[in-house]
Amino acid sequence: MFGISDPGIWLAYLLELLCLVFAVWYGIKYWNQDDGDESSQQTTDPLKPKTSKSTKPAKKHSHN
């Protein structure tokens, strides 16, 4: 079949089919399930830098 006699090639085909079957099974099983923790996630911008909540003013360095 396909003119391929190398066992390594057959193993690759077998693993590909197993991955396909697993992906289909996983997709069907978890299709409409909610994450459950959406309400606890913050809706902040992930690219925005986090601000420090320190109350001490920053020290200024003077070069004399």
Point out poorly predicted stretches: none
Shape: elongated
Overall pLDDT: 78
How would you characterize the largest beta sheet?
A: none
* Beta-strand content estimate: under 5%
Head-to-tail CA distance between termini: 83 Å
Percent of residues in helices: 25-40%
Broad structural category: mainly alpha
Order of helices and strands: H
Strand tally: 0
Task: Report the radius of gyration as a whole number of Å.
Answer: 27 Å
Helix count from the secondary structure assignment: 1
Structure description:
It is a single chain. The chain is mainly α and 64 residues long. It has one helix and no strands. It has one helix at 7-29. The termini are far apart. 0% of the residues are buried.
Key terms:
about 60 residues; mainly alpha
Write the layout of secondary structure elements.
Blueprint (H helix, E strand, L loop, with lengths): L6 H23 L35
Summarize the model shown.
The chain has one helix spanning 7-29. The chain has 64 residues and is mostly helical.
